[in-house]
Structure formats: C-alpha cells, structure tokens
C-alpha cells in the first residue's frame, strides 16, 4: 500500500509566522519566557494533534502520538526541532503509513521534525542503554491517539530506568553526562558568548537536575501527563527536597533562559543557541531600555549588554549551585550507619564532612557562618552540602544580622590573610558563592557577575578579584618562585599583609560605578578596611593601592623607563619602598588575572624594571636601567665575536630593557651577520629578518633589522599587513655602532589571521624579507607600500564578525623632555599599525621609541615622536596630528 499524503493544513505555517511576529513585543516583559515557549508548544499540540487524528482516519490499529524533548517539556523556541514518537501495537507498517501522511505536509512547510515509529516496550528497552533516549522518555507527553499505548510506554520506561524502584544508575549517568558536557563546553560559567542550551548553568543543567528529581521523587503516572517544570518544582518544595529560595532560583533561571533563547533564535532566524556578541548587542537594549550609554565604548549598547550578561551569569550560577545539590541528594547512597564526631560546641563531622549541630545556631550567632570556614580550613575538612545550603538560606532570608556582626567581620579578615587554604575552590571563594562576602563587605555585591563588554576583560569583576587574591596567596606561599622570583623575594619582606591582600581583593570594587573606578574604588575599599577594623595606617595603604592600581601597568607599558624623570615622578607618587613593593605585587596579580596569558614575559619584565629602578631611586641611586645593564652583561656572555659584542654594546638601553638576554644575543648575531654581508662598511645589506615560533604561547616572534630612516616603521608595518601577519605587540628601538649607519631593530609578536602562531618555515617569511628589501632599497615610498597591500590584500566580501565596540582615543602627553608622546587606543584591525605609522611619517615625524600592545580587540600603542629632534608643542599642529590619526584609525 502506497502512502497518500493528507492535504496540507494551510494554517500551521501562517499561525507560526503570526506567533513569531508577536514574540519580540511579548518577550520585553520579565517572566515571559516560559509562557511564550508554552504557547508555541500548545500551537503544535493543536495543529499536529489534529493532523495526526486526520491521518488516522479509517485506521483500525491503535496508534498514539507522543511528544518528546523540548516539545514535551513545553520549552519550544521558534526554530527548535519538534520531536515525536508514533507508538503502535505490533503493526509497524500501518504506523509508518500514518506517520508518512503526517510528515510530508510538515516537511513541505519547512518544519524541523524528528520522529520515530516504535512499540512502547521496544522504545523503553532502548532507554536502558542510551541516555539521550532515556531523558527523552522521561519527558514523554501524550498528544493524540490511543492513550493506552502512552501509558504502557510510561510504565515500561519506569521499569527500565528504575529497576526495583531504584534509579541510582540513571542518576549517576546523568551526573556523569553533566560533567562531560561541562568539560566539552568549557568548565566555566563566565564565557563571553555562552551556549544557552548546553553551557554551564544553562537549560540542560536545569533539565538534568529536574530529570534526576523526577525519577527519584516524582515519577510520571501512566494515566497523566508529566507535570510542568513549575509544578514539579512546587511539589519538590512541598516535599522538602528544595527550599522555596532554591525553587525560585530554578524557575526564575529557566524562564530567563527560555526568554533569551527565543530572542536569540528570532534574531538568527534559525535554530541557534549561542548568545553571540552581535545578538547580545541586538537584544540587550530591548530587554534593558532604561540603561543608557556611557563613555567607555563606541557602542552605546555596552551598559545594556553588561546588564543582560550579569543577569545571565547570576541565573547560571544559581542553577549550578541548586542543580549540583539536587543531583547529589537524588542519588541515595547505600545504607550504612553514619560516622559522627564532635568538633566543638557548634560543629560536628558527618561522614568526614564538617556539619552544623543545631540549625538554629546560625540565626542565634551569625558569626558562626564564617567561623564554619575557619574550622574547615584548620581541620582540612570539606563542608557538608546541607550545611552550605543552610548558610545560603540564612543569608538570603535576612543578611542584616551577619552584616552587623563584628565577630563575623574579624573572621573574614582572618580568612583573608590565612595562606593555608590551597583548595580549589578555596574557602574564600565558597564564602562568596554563599553570600557571606556580599553581606559583610560594603560594595562587594555589585561586583558579583559584573561583566565588561569587551574581549580583554575575560572574567567578571568578582571572579577577577578572587583570582588575583588566589595568585597573591600563591606568591606569598612561594609556589610561583620559578615564574615570579622577584615577587616571591619581595613577599618575604612584607610586614603588613592584610592591607595588601585586601587591596588585591578590592582593587576593582569601583568598576560597577563606571568611569574613574580606581578613585571611586579607593573610597569603598577604605570603608571595607574600617569595617574590618584595620588600623588607620593600613586603611590608608589600602586606599592608596586601590587608587594607584593602574599606574604601574600604564607607566611600564606606555612610558620610557630609561627616562629618569619618569622614575622620579613615580617614586614621588609612591613615597616609600613598602608602598612600592605592595603596589608591584598587586599590579602583577591584577595583570595576570585579567585574561589567560595576559601577563606576557614582556609585561612582567617591564613591571620588574620599573620596580627595580624606582627602588634604586628611593635609595638615592641614579644609574643606567638595571634591567638593561643586567641584560647587556648576560647577552655579552652569549655572543662570541667582537662584531657581535659591538652590536650588543650598541643596542639602545630603552630597547635592551625590553629584551631577554637570549633575545638580545640572538638579535646581535642577526645584526652582525647582516653587517658582515655588506660589500663595504658604508653600504651594508639593507634588511634582515628572523622568525621564531612559540606555538604554546600562541604567537611567533619576528625580528627585523633595517636602515634607520624616516618612514621605515610604516614600510615594515605595511609589509607585515601585505603578508597576512597580525601584529599583537612590538618592541621597537635603535642600534648605534661606531662608523656604521644607524639601524632599527624591531621585534614583533605576531600570529596569522586565524589567531595561531606562524611556523618558522612558513613561506611568508622569505616573501616578507623580499618585500622589505624592495621597499627599503631607497627611501620608503608610501605609494609603493600602499600598492603592495592593495595587491596582496584585496577587500574581503565577507562581513566582519561583530565584537564589542572599542572607543577610539588619541592623546598627546608631555611626560618626556626629549619627545612628544602620542597614545593611540582603538579597535584592532589588520593594517592598523601601518595606518598609524604611515600617518606619522606623512606628517614628517620621527619615531624614537614605540610600544605596541594588543588587549583583546583593542590596541594600545605609544609613540615617542619628534620633528628634526624637537618636540611638537604648537597647539594647532597637535590638533592636526590628532585629527589625522583619528581619520587613519577609522579608515
């Protein structure tokens, strides 16, 4: 018998389109996510149920249509797959005919349908060995047809998944799958573009916890549909398996995430679950219309996006905490007598975990919630899950008693300065998760889950500060001596650890208050320090460190450390060696914990140099850059010939301070080889190029030696652009050797356009060298450079990937007596360094020193420029310089 498709009902596609059109306005209101998804599911219930009934007309065999997946859970997003099973009673042929009649019109309407045709018991048997099938059947919901088949499926599924009424094996499998999925999607909540379905704390985490709870405490009844998520949570609260607060966390997060997922799919116009930057910027202002722009970004949407992502992270964090506890409690351990031992008047150990004796204790004596963690660290005990929940519930109900408890504040200070806790997560982190820090530390709560809408600040403000604190403690314990020997040595001399550790914890506490966060944060940090009863001298040190926590990064990366005036002004600002050491230690941890791999060896060495030179100045010493002296001495030991020695001696100290001894020696050999290849000393070979690949660091290093003449840096930058080399950072300087023409030695940290290191044998290196020889055969010609770029890099027809906006900011500073300092901050793009240096060359400016760095998608470049050896002082000329650079950056 050939299946005859039933006539397509003309209303389903039209009904869906009409529903989709209404969703954006409907979803503006908070709490609308679950309702909107339920409405879509009910639309499918009616339309497909009616079609199934029509397809069954004249069929005597019993058949049933059963929804699974998101349709069954009533969680359908606009472009979700619609999954169902057609159940039959040993008449597969008829069932397939009916299924075909149902499917073809649905496919004609371009609906994403997933289907199966099976017997109830055969379906349940599949669930025993396939977790995806098992979870689909836990949600199974009758739509149309013979309900007896659906009831048989529910009974058979219960027998397969919970043999003897014990679902422990299934719950264990759910927990294992949850962990594997977390590992697959990145084991952190705070990813910049989270997956709303599979990410940590996202919809699948909530569903997994609900499946475990349902199969343990609320199994489906054969003669009724499974309860909605809201109804199941309500029943779990009534049964005591969830507190009211935990129930609200799960229901609120589910609604919020369904709302976002629906908007994401409407924006993408397809099945899509990634909350990309582009979609964040599209829906953020819609959901948060009252949050206006600020001056930090060219994108006026940034504050609305930050509010959106903060709410997402708060919901995701809540889901993780409740879901983990629900999975843990649903898995019933084997019966055995518990092991209980008394610790003190408040605490016991329960099966090796620290627990509370009397639930009333936290209410009667709030400080015990903090002392709990002090005992756990001292005794090296994990804290019992129920006791952690009791802390969270007590604080959520009323944080005021804990906030007012002076003993609790003292315990928090004790925990802050305690270096013993090596656990991951540390006790201090768990205290934050449960709300203790927000209750006791003024100004901490707004930092929680606070994001910055850019690619540089990867972590939320609270996590960044906690990571910085953890690193500070690791340095103090000596665990990072190999990576940071100077910091480890200086920590041994720290006599006042409390203000340093508190400032590390609070250095960005002003971020939620907007621009000028260092100054605003210093005020809050001072309030916290007084709340923790620190002596006034320590309070002042905390305020100083928070106020100045950006200073050392700025000076080391954007100023000439060989300039005595720079060091003298900074030494005057810090005032004493103790304050300098503390500020260095804070800056080191802050820089390292801004983003993975942010603290490069170059940045670490610059911070070290600034610290050593400033300490020397405070002691009254005035000598050449200590780092340059040290590097020069070690480099001389690594070179062999007199010519190579002469090159090392000729490297500008400002450049040498930014190189390691091995780099300096390697580059000296490169320069000596270039000079040796000259036919005459007066006419040396023009260019030398040497590349080194560092795949573990994700970049390559290319050293370029060229004649020192106007426009040379622009030509080099143009050649790099033409050869599809992306510049991440650069160290630029000069080499002066007696009786030899001046040379530039420019070291670039680069990657390819895919973001990967470039191999040393890559074909682009010899091509780059050939291009540079041609471009620098005489004076650099900007038109030739531009023609090379246009020929090799024609405009792409692909739209650029949307990422957070970056404000363009161009400043001129007079911190140097020898040159005018030009600072350029802008969105990074291929060819930007060429555009900037070409503009400077067009304006007749010589670059005596440059520091080039990339922070996410933002460049932060600094150029020391002169004209005929003189600084640029004319206001009109400075205004023209800024205008020309702004045009070049945006071109």
Overall pLDDT score:
90
Low-confidence stretches: 295-299
* Strand ordering within the main sheet: 8-9-11-10-14-15-13-12
β-sheet strand percentage = 5-15%
> What gross morphology would you assign?
globular
In whole angstroms, the N-to-C terminal distance is 68 Å
Helical content (DSSP H or I, runs of 4+): 40-55%
Q: With helices defined by DSSP (H or I, 4 residues minimum), what is the helix count?
A: 38
Number-wise, the strands total: 15
Q: Characterize the largest beta sheet: strand count, sense, and whether it forms a barrel.
A: 8 strands, antiparallel
Q: Return the structural class.
A: alpha+beta
User: Compute the gyration radius: what is it?
Assistant: 33 Å
Q: Can you walk me through this structure?
A:
With 891 residues, the chain is α+β, with helices and mostly antiparallel strands. The chain is 53% helix and 11% strand. It contains 38 helices and 15 strands. The strands form 3 sheets. It has an 8-stranded antiparallel beta sheet with strand order 8-9-11-10-14-15-13-12, sandwiched between helices. It has a 4-stranded mixed beta sheet with strand order 3-2-1-4, sandwiched between helices. The protein has a 3-stranded antiparallel beta sheet with strand order 5-6-7. A hairpin with a 6-residue loop joins strand 12 (809-813) and strand 13 (820-827). Residues 295-299 have low confidence and may be disordered.
């Amino acid at each position: 018998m050939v299946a005859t498709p039933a006539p397509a009902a003309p209303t389903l596609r039209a009904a869906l389109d009409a529903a989709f059109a209404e969703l954006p306005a409907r979803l503006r209101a908070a709490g609308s996510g679950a309702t909107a998804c339920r409405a879509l599911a009910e639309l499918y219930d009616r339309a497909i149920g009616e079609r199934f009934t029509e397809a069954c007309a004249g069929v005597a065999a019993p058949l049933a249509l059963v929804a699974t997946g998101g349709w069954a859970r009533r969680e359908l997003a606009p472009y979700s797959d619609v999954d169902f099973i057609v159940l039959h009673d040993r008449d597969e042929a008829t069932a397939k005919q009916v299924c075909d009649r149902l499917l073809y019109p649905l496919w004609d309407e371009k609906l994403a349908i997933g289907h199966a045709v099976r017997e109830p018991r055969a379906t349940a048997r599949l669930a025993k060995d396939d977790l995806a099938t098992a979870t689909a059947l836990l949600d199974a919901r009758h739509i149309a047809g013979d309900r007896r088949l659906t009831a048989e499926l529910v009974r058979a599924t219960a027998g397969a998944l919970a043999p003897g009424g014990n679902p422990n094996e299934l719950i264990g499998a759910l927990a294992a799958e949850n962990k594997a999925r977390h590992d697959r999607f990145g084991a952190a909540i705070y990813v910049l573009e989270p997956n709303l379905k599979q990410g940590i704390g996202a919809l699948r985490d909530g569903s997994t916890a609900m499946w475990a709870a349902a199969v343990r405490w609320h199994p489906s009844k054969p003669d009724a549909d499974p309860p909605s998520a809201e109804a199941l949570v309500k029943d779990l609260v009534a049964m005591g398996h969830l507190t009211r607060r935990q129930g609200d966390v799960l229901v609120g997060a589910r609604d919020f995430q369904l709302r976002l997922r629906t908007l994401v799919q409407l924006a993408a116009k397809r099945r899509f679950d990634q909350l990309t930057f582009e979609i964040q910027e599209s829906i953020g202002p819609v959901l948060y219309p009252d949050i206006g722009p600020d001056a930090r970004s060219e994108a006026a949407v940034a504050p609305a996006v930050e509010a959106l992502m903060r709410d997402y992270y708060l919901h995701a964090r809540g889901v993780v905490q409740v879901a983990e506890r629900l999975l843990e409690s649903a898995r019933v351990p084997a019966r055995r007598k518990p092991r209980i031992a008394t610790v003190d008047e408040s605490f016991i150990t329960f099966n090796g975990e620290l627990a509370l004796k009397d639930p009333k204790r936290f209410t009667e004596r709030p400080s015990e919630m903090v002392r709990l963690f002090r005992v756990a660290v001292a005794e090296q005990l994990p804290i019992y899950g129920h006791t952690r929940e009791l802390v969270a519930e007590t604080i959520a109900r009323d944080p005021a008693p804990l906030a007012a408890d002076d003993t609790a504040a003292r315990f928090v200070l004790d925990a802050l300065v305690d270096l013993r806790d090596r656990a991951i997560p540390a006790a201090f982190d768990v205290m934050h998760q449960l709300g203790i820090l927000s209750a006791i530390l003024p100004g901490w709560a707004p930092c929680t889950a606070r994001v910055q809408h850019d690619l540089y600040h990867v972590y939320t403000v609270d996590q960044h500060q906690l990571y910085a604190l953890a690193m500070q403690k690791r340095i103090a314990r000596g665990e990072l001596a190999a990576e940071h020997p100077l910091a480890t040595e200086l920590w041994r001399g720290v006599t006042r650890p409390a203000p340093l550790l508190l400032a590390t914890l609070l250095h960005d506490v002003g971020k939620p208050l907007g621009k000028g966060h260092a100054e605003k944060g210093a005020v809050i940090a001072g309030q916290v320090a007084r709340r923790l009863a620190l002596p006034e001298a320590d309070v002042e040190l905390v305020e100083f460190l928070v106020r100045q926590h950006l200073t050392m990064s700025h000076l080391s990366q954007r100023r000439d450390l060989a300039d005595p005036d720079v060091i003298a002004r900074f030494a005057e600002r810090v005032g004493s060696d103790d304050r300098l050491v503390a500020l260095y230690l804070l800056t080191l941890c802050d820089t390292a914990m801004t983003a993975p791999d942010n603290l490069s060896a170059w940045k670490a060495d610059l911070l070290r140099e600034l610290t050593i030179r400033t300490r020397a100045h405070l002691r009254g010493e005035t000598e050449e850059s200590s780092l340059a002296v040290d590097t020069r001495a070690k480099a001389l030991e690594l070179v062999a010939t007199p010519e190579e020695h002469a090159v090392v001696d000729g490297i500008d100290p400002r450049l040498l301070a930014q190189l390691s001894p091995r780099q300096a020696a390697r580059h000296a050999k490169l320069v000596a080889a270039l000079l040796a290849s000259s036919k005459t000393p007066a006419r040396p070979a023009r260019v030398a190029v040497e590349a080194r690949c560092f795949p573990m660091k994700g970049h390559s290093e290319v050293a370029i030696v060229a004649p020192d003449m106007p426009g040379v840096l622009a030509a080099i930058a143009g050649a790099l652009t033409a050869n599809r080399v992306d510049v991440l950072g650069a160290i630029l300087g000069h080499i002066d050797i007696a009786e030899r023409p001046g040379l530039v030695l420019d070291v670039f940290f680069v990657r390819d356009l895919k973001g990967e290191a470039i191999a040393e044998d890559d074909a682009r290196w010899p091509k780059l060298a050939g291009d540079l020889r041609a471009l620098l055969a005489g004076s650099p010609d900007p038109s030739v450079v531009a023609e090379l770029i246009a020929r090799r890099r024609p405009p792409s027809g692909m739209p650029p990937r949307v990422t957070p906006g970056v404000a363009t900011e161009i400043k001129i500073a007079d911190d140097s007596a020898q040159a005018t300092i030009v600072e350029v901050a802008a969105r990074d793009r291929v060819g930007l360094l060429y555009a900037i240096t070409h503009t400077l060359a067009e304006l007749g400016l010589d670059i005596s020193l440059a520091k080039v760095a990339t922070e996410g998608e933002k460049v932060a470049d600094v150029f020391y420029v002169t004209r005929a050896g003189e600084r640029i002082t004319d206001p009109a000329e400075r205004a023209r310089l800024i205008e020309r650079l702004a045009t070049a950056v945006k071109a």
